[in-house]
Amino acid sequence: MTKVCLIGLGRTGSEIARIIMKQRDMKLVAAICSDFSSKAGKDIGEILGLPETGIKVYTSSQVNYVIEKFKPDVFVDFSNHKATMNYISVISENKAAIVIGTTGFSKTDIMRMKVLAKKNGSGILYAPNITVGVNVMMLLSNIVSRILSDYDFEISEAHHKHKKDSPSGTALKIADQVEEGLQYSGVKVAESIPIHATRAGGIIGRHKLMAAGENDKIEIIHESFNRKAFADGALRGIRFIKGKKGYFEMKDVLELEKVLASFFDNSKVPLAKSSS
Ligand SMILES: NC(=O)c1ccc[n+]([C@@H]2O[C@H](COP(=O)([O-])OP(=O)(O)OC[C@H]3O[C@@H](n4cnc5c(N)ncnc54)[C@H](OP(=O)(O)O)[C@@H]3O)[C@@H](O)[C@H]2O)c1
Question: Is residue 61 predicted with pLDDT exceeding 90?
Answer without folding.
Answer: yes
